[in-house]
Design a protein that fits this description.
GO terms for molecular function: ATP binding; ATP hydrolysis activity. With about 270 residues, the protein is an alpha/beta fold. The protein is built from 9 helices and 11 strands. The strands form 3 sheets. Strands 5-6-7-3-8-9 form a 6-stranded mixed β-sheet, with helices on both faces. A 3-stranded antiparallel β-sheet has the order 2-1-4. Strands 10-11 form a two-stranded antiparallel ribbon. The radius of gyration is 19 Å and the shape is globular. Bound molecules: adenosine-5'-triphosphate.
Length: about 270
């Protein structure tokens, strides 16, 4: 995809990043049109989280990086946080914080200088809590939630931030199948309603293909395929990159990836 295909929300050119002093992302070129959903896929350790962190300004990156006109490493933190929200894979939850208080933290970049929430801030939080089905949990301690409940709360905090670019790191890894669909549909609805741009690291290749108009496949820190889901997800490529045995089912809503058992080891 090129910059000529509509206004770009995210532009990376020759992006590189290191973790713990070791290079883990190399020469990443990525242009994401505003209002689109790009699913980032790739094996464990291929650099998906690091790329999301670079886009959120949370790790040092070399090369050119622009997110809706914001430079993630050099712009003011408040400006970045009004533009980009990251739903992390492993959220840190302060002990004793209620679900509602955690969601309210999403409003921080929008608060006035005195830090007092306005009626609008409270309305945004109320709406997000309802949309993510969290009313019954609102006054529970966030640290005492199940993994899936907490994942919905952390998404709620990111949505309360009202970002223009939403970065999701394995957003449904702890969710049951019903909540997976509910959460991905909700994010996709917001994308349509508000021209939200979504970049989501996902291990479930079928969901990644159903929701992403485009798949970006990372392997050992480099983009090795970038295109429509049916172009990226091929049996040979998944064998080569993941060492996986799969069948690809062609469906009207995109390719579905069916893992295959190895044959022969059991009678
Ligand atoms: N804080 C860190 N310090 C040192 N190395 C790190 C750190 N975080 C990540 N790495 C390394 O950077 C590489 C890329 O990790 P990253 O988390 O970006 O991969 P990923 O594709 O998101 O993996 P997964 O699918 O397992 O979540 C890995 O080799 C990982 O061990």
């Amino acid at each position: 995809m090129t910059e000529s295909e509509g206004p770009a929300a995210v532009v990376c050119r020759g992006l590189g990043a290191s973790r713990g002093g070791i290079p883990v992302l190399y020469d990443v070129d990525l242009v994401v049109p505003a209002g689109s959903w790009v699913s980032l896929v790739g094996p464990n350790g291929s650099g998906k989280t690091t790329l999301l962190y670079a886009l959120a300004g949370l790790v040092e990156a070399s090369g050119r990086l622009d997110v809706m006109g914001v430079r993630p490493r050099s712009s003011r933190r408040r400006e970045i946080a009004r533009t980009v929200a990251l739903m992390p894979q492993r959220p840190v939850v302060p002990e004793g914080t209620t679900v509602r208080a955690l969601v309210e933290l999403g409003r921080t970049p929008h608060l006035s200088r005195f830090g007092t929430p306005t009626a609008r801030d409270r309305t945004v939080v109320d709406e997000v809590i309802v949309r993510l089905d969290l009313e019954d949990l609102a006054y529970r301690a966030a640290s005492a939630l199940s993994g899936g409940e907490l994942q919905r709360v952390v998404l709620a905090r990111a949505l309360a931030q009202e970002p223009r670019v939403l970065l999701l790191d394995e957003p449904t890894s702890a969710l049951d199948i019903g909540h997976q669909q509910q959460v991905l549909d909700l994010v996709d609805d917001l994308r349509g309603d508000r021209e939200l741009t979504v970049i989501a690291a996902m291990h479930d290749l079928t969901s990644a293909a159903q929701y992403g108009q485009r798949l970006v496949l990372l392997d050992r820190g480099r983009i090795v395929a970038d295109g429509a889901p049916a172009e990226v997800l091929t049996v040979d490529r998944l064998r080569e990159v993941y060492g996986a045995r799969v069948e690809i089912l062609e469906r009207s809503d995109g390719p579905a990836v069916l893992p295959l058992r190895s044959t022969g080891e059991k009678a």
